Amino acid sequence: MYARISIASVRSPLSVIPIFSDALALPVRHARAPGAAEAMRTFKGELGETVTLGHIVLLGAGRRSDLTIAAARTLGAKLVRALDRVGASAARIESSASLAADRGRRFDAGQALGEGLAIANWRVDAFDGTATKRESRRARLTVDADDREFADGIARGLSIGASVNEARRIAATPPNICTPDWVAAQCRTLARTHGMRCSVIGYPKAKSLGMGGLTAVGRGSAHKPCLISLEHRPRSLARAARGKHLVLVGKTITYDTGGYSLKVNNGMKGMKYDKCGGAAVIGAMHAIASLKLPLRVTALLPAAENMVSDDSYRPDDIITMHNGVTVEVTNTDAEGRLVLADALSWACRQLAPTAIVDMATLTGGVVTALGKFSAGYFCTDEALRSRVEEAASATAEKVWQLPLWPEHREYMRAQHADIINSNPSREAHPIQGAAFLAYFVDAGVPWAHVDIAGVSASETPSDLCVAGPTGWGVRLLTALAERMA
Q: Which of 78, 156, 272, 337 is catalytic?
């Protein structure tokens, strides 16, 4: 692993030569390199396969027709691991233009490869102690490419990858460090560094504003809840972005015990990842500000710790939300929708959004339905739905639309209040959360709800990510903002 990856021209780099499995041939200028002929007899050119010959690295690119943007991302991931194994500090990708089928795709292919380099280079090691067995990080890797357009794409990919890793850093931070106030401090630092505005509605103010969901969920903790706002407001807007205001809302439960509906059978392990929706939104704001996208974007992060104490909220409590809707609590472990609801209502009343997208690790039901392969999402606005799906396709962060019908909203009706926060029946379980949230978005405001419970973290490593938080959603939200601009 490297402490830093950057792009620049350097002297005496390793030459990385992509070779397709259906075109197994070395460039003429390298054909006589020591060991080249012998290596080519066993080299198959499979995606990510590498062979090192002195200052040359043969990099398998798979079949030419199979090299999609997602495959280029995987190629970058496998390349950075190979370079780390040989201790390289600088590498130049030769014949890089061959990795894109046409000239117009070279930038995109370079970006995907750059994202793979950055994302695969990350691991959780900030908490290593004196007994660690992990090797120290290498100081730096500098990369370059012989095609300028491809190299520019790598630079952008490294930038977006850094934003993904920022989300993963926040998600991986343990609950004894990551409290609502800590998240607020991270956002203030991000705002100062990238020219954004940050404001925080603390617990007393949230109570006075009638945010009954946020304050109920977080009041049992010594670390009181807050609503964090991050605003990217560029001086110059794109013509297509004038009059538009994208609001991103991320569930930021810094730890979830389940409250009095206590998680059992070791179900609490990994609940630091219940803030992955908020972490993804922070990562997206990092990318949006870094790329200076010419669109007004505001992030809202309702941050709370769901703990058990003599002041915790209980099943059977009835709470009044920011927009006046009353909620009968049936399950204190359905807390994420309560904090999101107040943020959605506040956004509609205070920010005049032209589109809202919320992201949350909301239901186990969406994991049962879609597994680790896709996020579930809900959107009744055709234009916003099209943009979300385009962004998902471009970034290979898959989404699958689930229905949200009037019958689902009625299913959340309560006996003693307006609605319940969770129906005791497991029917339509992944839809219940979206149906609840629909009560807090004003009619006419385009809104999408993305449930990332199955994709936000992984217990096993993949080609792209080590085990742990994936930063899922950063690339999708960034691509969405880009399309709106």
A: 337
Strands 245-250 and 355-360 turn out to be: parallel
Instruction: Measure Cα distances from 130 to 134, 136, 139, 338 in Å.
Output: 10, 12, 20, 42
pLDDT in tens, the chain (485 residues): 999 999 998 888 999 999 999 988 888 787 778 888 888 889 999 999 999 988 899 999 999 999 999 999 999 999 999 999 999 999 999 989 889 877 778 999 999 999 999 999 999 999 999 999 999 999 999 999 999 999 999 999 999 999 999 999 999 999 999 999 999 999 999 999 999 999 999 999 999 999 999 999 999 999 999 999 999 999 999 999 999 999 999 999 999 999 999 999 888 999 999 999 999 999 999 999 999 999 999 999 999 999 999 999 999 999 999 999 999 999 999 999 999 999 999 999 999 999 999 999 999 999 999 999 999 999 989 999 999 999 999 999 999 999 999 999 999 999 999 999 999 998 999 999 999 999 999 999 999 999 999 999 999 999 999 999 999 999 999 999 999 99
Q: Is 244 a catalytic residue?
A: no
Q: Give the three-class secondary structure for 324.
A: coil
Q: How far is it, in rounded angstroms, from Cα 270 to Cα 171?
A: 10
387 has catalytic annotation: no
Beta-bridge partners for 226: 303
- pTM of the predicted model as reported, rounded to 2 decimal places: 0.96
**Annotated catalytic residue: which of 137, 207, 244, 263?**
263
